[in-house]
Known about the structure:
Blueprint: E1 3-8, E2 16-22, E3 25-32, E4 35-40, E5 55-56, E6 61-63, E7 70-72, E8 89-90, E9 92-95, E10 98-102
Antiparallel strand pairs: 1-10, 2-3, 3-4, 4-8, 5-6, 6-7, 9-10
Amino acid sequence: MALIDVCPVEELPPGTMKLVPAGAITVGVYNCAGGYYAIEDRCSHDDGPLCEGDWDRETCVVVCPRHGANFDLRSGRPLTLPAYEPVEAFPVVVEDGYVKVDVA
């Protein structure tokens, strides 16, 4: 397990997202309706940034800003074309008041 500190829980309230460097990749960590989710900031369609796109705070869906593909934040699964391959999703835990993502 390779836990990376994201932030204290009070800095990631429901409806917010934080980009976190994790070695060679960047991860978007979301608080969607009180649940924490993390996905790689890379659209599987063209390797462009994904987490800079809009996201629906009720359905936990992020929209790629380049071509509009929708992805489920909980699983990384693509929901619309042009993407058809999932992006990597990572487990998120809260320990001692800190949000942490497991990028192992």
